[in-house]
TrEMBL record:
Signal peptide: none
Annotated family: Belongs to the helicase family. PriA subfamily.
Chemical reaction(s) catalysed: ATP + H2O = ADP + phosphate + H(+); Couples ATP hydrolysis with the unwinding of duplex DNA by translocating in the 3'-5' direction
Subunit structure: Component of the replication restart primosome.
SMART domains (UniProt xref): DEXDc (SM00487), HELICc (SM00490)
GO molecular function (one): 3'-5' DNA helicase activity
Gene3D superfamilies, sorted: P-loop containing nucleotide triphosphate hydrolases (3.40.50.300), PriA, 3(prime) DNA-binding domain (3.40.1440.60)
Start and end residues of each Helicase C-terminal domain: 554-708
Protein name listed in UniProt: Replication restart protein PriA
Cross-referenced InterPro entries: DEAD/DEAH_box_helicase_dom, Helicase_ATP-bd, Helicase_C-like, P-loop_NTPase, PriA, PriA_3primeBD, PriA_3primeBD_sf, PriA_C
Named cofactor requirement(s): Zn(2+)
DNA sequence: AGCACGCCGACT
DNA sequence: GTCGGCGTGCTC
């Protein structure tokens, strides 16, 4: 007897055992898709994870319904990768499968109903709904539940269907269909062999002038154009129509055939050659190669505009020349047009894109191409790690420090940067992590020899790096040399920059107009009704918005508590900075770039255009502004409230501030080398600002590492965050306490921090508690993680706590 | 995750 | 008195 372990797209532990019947025995392989029944009447598409002969003892396995693939669709390396993810990040493999596959590759099971032909209907005893349904089945033999909604009220459907099933008048028919059908396009061709008799052919067409003309047209195009002839092109001018073509096809003079159309338009322009590498880049390239030779992956630490892309292109080229493929990971696809354009020019059709914003059809298209090895370079976000690569040779993780590689809100949680390294290893491929501001973890790994450290310290073409200047805002205020949140000094500098017809960027990392609307008389502030956060005031829409659940409310005119009209705003948002900027620089064209202003369609494109053309003179923005805006005319970057970057309560706050400041600085003086950065702060002697000014990245990382070591944070310990959520706070608190006590049985006490209320105690009506684990690195780590898993299992044994939602974030 | 079964409040 | 809320249990 043969059995198979099947991965199902459900958030359930482990895999499921099914029996492999005789008919599939010789065909079934690990990595193929199968159709299996599950539960009452559900059918799922699963993935074969293992084939074996151990009959289960505690239950009777069901049969595999059918085999969907003739060859494995998930490569072995991917299955290994899934397993690693599920073990390392403590999530179910089914969740990984769900995330990894475009939904149309998972067959859909929709419940369809049909008449039971063996049962007579006694119409008299039926109610109206039942009669409608049966009549519908007379007309159409199969009706789906969703179709029934058209003629039976929603809440009565289940009742009606159930009654008829009980009477055995109807049956359930599981109709399964594959959603994805490749779109086909018609092409024409003329068999060149018949051309020996060309004169004869033309003779035979003398009576059909149009057909003759069409034939000659097709022939001409075919002989001049060395690619398939799209059928539709011959009808575009209106001279010919389908019947003319039909005549030719019937006479066997022209053949019609179909090709799958790619839904993704690919670039067909010129293919550009690489520029020559600079000396510094050559050296870096040698070092990368050395790293690869030592069997190490590389951390490429290259200051902004140092030409990291250039090196990537070199390695990509080389990999492809060796017959292997490349995965190029980006944190977000939207803000990185420039890099894509560059690769597009060079690689044209061998390039593919993949990210979660594609339609399902498009995703499957890319899937197919990757599988068939038609795509040599795949550019994509973290979801592209799951494509069925056949012979991956290189993975590049650009902007490796970017938090978008590990979004907390998407399940399953994993860090694409770390996952990429593991995946590369499974494919025996090499990886390059690239950034101008590497994450502290990667930097540490590089310094410890786990990664090869390659530093590119100067801008390409020896353009000077931007200079930093720190403005003591406290002093400026005290000597009354300030307007709003701008010191007179900064204002002068920006004015100068405007006079030189150079562009300015102002960074302020807080959305909205004001953080809080506060009553001056009683101190009342408006909280979100769903979340435990103060609502942010947005002046442009004149409303209060919750940035966590999106809840909106009117801005109060009087204090709801004490009826005072003395309401004031506190905490400056980007909208207020924009307003002030416009007020101070009346003549200047000021634009804002944040999530709220970029929401409209093509807002980004429009802004991009305005900056490129020079129409926008000052761009005020949140962290968004630090990405992708590579324009030569920007020379000044101002951060009027730099302190705000440090107020975040997070052990990575300083690291993030450093990265953000450095990234946004990189926008200035890319060409002229005259970029200036003004950091305006109340704490001009804050070590971080001083270090940034010194421009000694090694020293900065030393500083970070020292703090991390002292306060026991990564990379010196492994962090696991356990998040518990429930609608009832008391129950949640008790549960969290209990989980903590279970953990205490197995883990040393100092490892466990909490439970405590999460920084945002309630989001969307769910209360949140958390337990933070600081686990030692090395051998003990795995042992402790096994204990953690055991504890979580013990916790879930308690029926009363089954309704508590638990999420674990490993290395968050 | 989905889905069925089972026990307590607001309606014909 | 029923309909229907969601708490609990199970799925190879």
């Amino acid at each position: 007897m043969t059995f198979a372990q099947i991965i199902l797209p459900l958030n359930l532990k482990g895999t499921f055992t099914y029996k492999v019947s005789e008919e599939f025995l010789s065909k079934i392989e690990v990595g193929m898709r199968v159709l299996v029944p599950f539960g009452g009447k559900k059918i799922y598409t699963g993935i074969v994870a293992e084939i074996h002969h151990n009959e289960p003892e505690t239950f009777l396995p069901k049969d595999i319904h059918s085999l969907l693939d003739a060859e494995p669709i998930v490569p072995k390396q991917q299955l290994k990768f899934w397993n690693w993810l599920s073990e390392y990040y403590l999530c179910n493999i089914g969740e990984i499968y769900r995330f990894a596959f475009p939904s149309s590759l998972k067959l859909e099971s929709e419940t369809y109903l049909k008449r039971n032909p063996n049962e007579e209907i006694n119409w008299e005893v039926l109610d109206a709904n039942e009669i409608y349904l049966l009549q519908a089945l007379e007309v159409k033999s199969l009706v789906s539940l969703s179709e029934i909604e058209a003629f039976i009220p929603k809440k009565e459907i289940v009742k009606t269907v159930k009654a008829l099933i009980d009477e055995q008048l109807i049956l359930i028919d599981e109709k399964i269909y594959e959603k994805y059908k490749a779109k086909e396009v018609a092409y024409l061709k003329i068999d060149e062999n018949i051309l020996g008799n060309l004169s004869e052919i033309l003779q035979s067409l003398t009576k059909a002038k149009k057909q003759k003309d069409l034939f000659l047209t097709i022939l001409e195009v075919q002989q001049t154009q060395n690619q398939p002839l799209r059928k539709s092109q011959f009808f575009e001018n209106g001279v010919f129509n389908a019947s003319h073509l039909r005549g030719l096809v019937e006479k066997n003079l022209v053949q019609e055939y179909y090709l799958q159309k790619d839904r993704i338009e690919t670039y067909e322009g010129e293919i550009e050659n690489l520029e020559k590498l600079s000396e510094v880049q050559e050296k870096a390239l040698t070092e990368i190669n050395e790293g690869f030779c030592e069997g190490k992956n590389v951390l490429l630490h290259g200051v902004t505009s140092s030409g990291k892309t250039h090196l990537y292109l070199e390695k990509i080229e080389e990999t492809i020349a060796n017959g292997k493929n490349v995965l190029f990971l980006l944190p977000e696809i939207a803000l990185t047009k420039q890099i894509i354009q560059r690769l597009e020019k060079k690689y044209g059709k061998q390039l593919g894109f993949y990210h979660q914003k594609l339609t399902d059809f498009e995703k499957v298209e890319v899937w197919r191409k990757v599988k068939n090895n038609e795509i040599k370079i795949l550019i994509g976000t973290r979801s592209s790690l799951f494509l069925p690569f056949q012979n991956l040779g290189l993975i590049i993780i650009d902007e490796e420090h970017d938090a978008a590689y590990k979004p907390r809100e998407v399940k399953p949680f994993f860090n694409a940067k770390d996952a990429a390294l593991v995946l590369a290893n499974y494919y025996q491929a090499k990886a390059i992590l690239g950034s101008a501001t590497p994450s502290v973890e990667s930097y540490y790994a590089a310094k410890n020899g786990k990664l090869k450290y390659v530093f590119l310290g100067e801008r390409f073409g020896e353009v000077a790096l931007p200079k930093y200047e720190i403005i003591n805002f406290k002093e400026a205020q005290e000597s009354k040399l300030s307007v709003g949140h701008f010191s007179q000094y900064l204002i002068d500098k920006i004015s100068e920059n405007l006079e030189h017809k150079k562009q300015t960027i102002i960074l302020h990392n807080r959305r909205g107009y004001a953080n809080v609307v506060e009553c001056e008389s009683c101190g009342h502030v408006t909280y979100c009704s769903n979340c435990d956060v103060v609502m942010t005031y947005h002046k442009s829409t004149n409303e209060l918005k919750c940035h966590y659940c999106g809840h909106k409310a009117q801005k109060p005119k009087i204090c709801p508590k004490c009826q005072s009209t003395n309401l004031n705003t506190r905490g400056i948002g980007i909208e207020q900075i924009e307003e002030e900027t416009q007020k101070i620089f009346k003549e200047a064209q000021v634009e804002r770039m944040d999530v709220d202003s970029m929401r409209k369609k093509f807002a980004y494109e429009k802004l991009y255009e305005k900056i490129e053309s020079g129409e926008a003179e000052i761009v005020v923005g949140t962290q968004m502004i630090s990405k992708g805006l590579d324009f030569d005319n920007i020379e000044l970057v101002a951060i009027p409230k730099a302190d705000a970057l440090l107020y975040v309560q997070d052990f990575r706050a300083e690291e993030r501030a450093y990265q953000l400041i450095t990234q946004v600085s990189g926008r200035a003086g890319r060409n002229s080398g005259k970029g200036k950065i003004y950091i305006q702060t109340y704490n001009p002697y804050h070590p971080l600002f001083e270090l940034i000014k010194e421009e000694n990245s090694a020293k900065i990382y030393e500083h970070f590492l020292k703090e991390r070591e002292q306060f026991l944070y990564p990379p010196f310990v492994k962090l696991v965050l356990i998040e518990l959520k429930h609608r009832k706070e008391e129950k949640l608190q008790r549960a969290s306490q209990f989980l903590s006590s279970v953990l205490q049985k197995y883990l040393p006490l100092p490892c466990i921090l909490g439970p405590e209320k999460a920084p945002i105690g309630k989001i969307n009506l769910l209360y949140q508690y958390q337990i933070l684990l600081k686990l030692p690195r090395g051998k003990k780590y795995q042992e402790y993680k096994d204990y953690l898993l055991k504890s979580l299992e013990e916790f879930q044994e308690i029926t009363a706590y089954k309704s508590i939602k638990i999420d674990t974030f490993v290395d968050f």
